[in-house]
Amino acid sequence: MMGKGTRREREARELYESAGYWVYSPQNPKFGDNDLWNLFDLAAYRRPTGDLRFVQVKSNGARGIKEWSTRARHFRAVTSVNVDFVVPYDREGWRLIKPLLCGTASDDRLHTTLYDERNGDVAMGDGIVEYLRGGANE
After folding, report:
1. Do 26 and 38 form a contact (C-beta atoms < 8 A)?
2. Which is more confident, 72 or 11?
3. Most buried pick, 33, 66, 78, 120, via CB within 10 A?
4. Domain annotation for the chain: domains and CATH numbers
């Protein structure tokens, strides 16, 4: 049986692959966390553009995004890397969020929404795939 978090990570992986990315996700360890640097569920790379994305997947809400954005800012400072926080909402659509470089832990502007399928008339997942296909480095 697969948990909701694992299922959402698999769905996110499939979206990035559909957008032309090669996706790496760590294997489940016997002990500890399987996130990359305790921050990311997936790493996605697309040739020939060289677009590299580190991805954190949540489910039905962006809980913990302020703390996560503060920690992920160091990766965002690398200009050749995109950092994505993706949130699928049940039967509504996916939301793609990017942490910003500025701000402090108390600042509300630690992140911005790049794309939100819930605002459009697209099938769940289709809007994010289309955004990723056309969205090189932001």
Report:
1. no
2. 11
3. 66
4. 4-27+34-133 (3.40.1350)
